[in-house]
Amino acid sequence: MYIRQLSAVLAILAASSRASPMPQESSGPTVLNPDDIVVVGADNSVQIMKDYEYDQLVRRAESASIKARASAWDEVAVRDMLHENRPRGCEESEEIQVLTDETFLNWDTAVSPVASAAGGDATVTITDGYSLANSVTVSAGASLGPIEKLLTINFHVDYSETWTTTQTQGFLFKVPEGQFGLVVTQANVRRITGNYLSGCTDNWEKTSFSSDSYTSQSYGDLSWVQGIIRLCNSTSYPVPYCIGEGSHY
After folding, report:
1. What pairs with residue 208 in β-bridges?
2. pTM of this prediction?
3. Which helix (H) or strand (E) holds 194?
4. Rounded to an integer, what distance in angstroms lies between the CA atom of residue 111 and that of residue 16?
5. What is the Cα–Cα distance from 174 to 181, expressed in whole angstroms?
6. Residue of 137, 146, 124 lying closest to 196 (CA atoms)
7. Residue 31 contacts by C-beta under 8 Å, 6 or more apart in sequence?
8. CA geometry: angle 142, 148, 150, nearest 5 deg
9. Mean pLDDT per 10-residue run, the chain (249 residues)?
10. Do 105 and 1 meet the contact criterion of CB atoms below 8 Å apart?
């Protein structure tokens, strides 16, 4: 369930009558059904909607962004062609060649214990902290410094930024009878992959890289990153990841 343009999703969401904004004040936890998700926007807005409605919005946003992605790939192809046609000589330079620039929901981050509803309906809420950080990885043996510096300049990513908290938030999810469930967050991550080109411009040295970055936001006493909060549930234990590979114990 990947998102190419979360801003487009949120724009559609704002116009949707089926999306319910979070109440500004509440005397207790907000009780959510197993198929409800909490969509957290970059502007700190929080909307509750059904998972299938969210999936429909994602598909609409993906369709709208196909043309823009194709244009970006054309730009990369033209730039590579210009490099190939440069006069021979050892004119040294360095730059970033972007191959992909995508935004999507990252793997589950568990923020509650697994609850069992073996004897009837159960509920589970956020109790655990988390830790996330902007990061960049490079091919084995390569130097990280120049790549991180160029990415910071060109894409304004602070690789020293982290999100760590033990705060909780009053979202109470129902776990269906006979199932196991936990609350997970699926952070909206921007992943840029490409090559760091350095040395002689007629014979570049290429170093591959991958950069993950997040957008900071908060709601109430929950400090997190742009994305969604949902129940991940299963009839079996341990609970398989809803996004990603592995199991929740």
Report:
1. 195
2. 0.75
3. strand 180-200
4. 29
5. 9
6. 146
7. 123, 172, 174
8. 110
9. 48 50 62 92 81 88 64 51 54 90 93 92 85 92 91 93 75 94 94 94 90 83 80 97 97
10. yes
The one-letter amino acid code at 82 reads L
232: β partners: 182
What's the burial of 7, exposed, middle or buried (CB within 10 Å: 0-12/13-18/19+)?
middle
The pair of structure tokens assigned to 190 is 């921007």
At position 160, the amino acid (one-letter code) is S
Q: Note if the bond before 238 is cis, omega within 30 degrees.
A: yes
Residues near 189 by beta carbon (within 8 Å), at least 6 away in sequence = 103, 104, 105, 106, 212, 213, 214
Those residues with Cβ within 8 angstroms of residue 1's Cβ, 6 or more apart along the chain or in another chain: 55, 58, 105, 243
Per the listing, tokens 């043996």 go with 141
Q: Taking a C-beta distance cutoff of 8 angstroms, is the pair 40, 219 a contact?
A: yes
Distance CA 194, CA 172 (A): 41
3's CB contacts (< 8 A; 6+ apart) are 9, 58, 61, 62, 103, 104, 105, 188
In this structure, the chain runs to a length of 249
181: left (phi over 0), alpha (psi -120 to 50) or beta: beta
In angstroms, the first-to-last Cα distance of the chain is 23
Among 247, 236, 240, 241, residue whose Cα is nearest residue 185: 241
**How far apart are the C-alpha atoms of 101 and 237, rounded to whole Å?**
36
What is the per-residue pLDDT across 2-45, written as a single tens digit (0 to 9) for each? 444 455 555 555 444 455 555 555 567 889 999 999 987 767 67
**Quick check: 12 and 61 in contact, CB under 8 A?**
yes
- What is the distance between the alpha carbons of residues 109 and 214, in angstroms, rounded to a whole number? 14
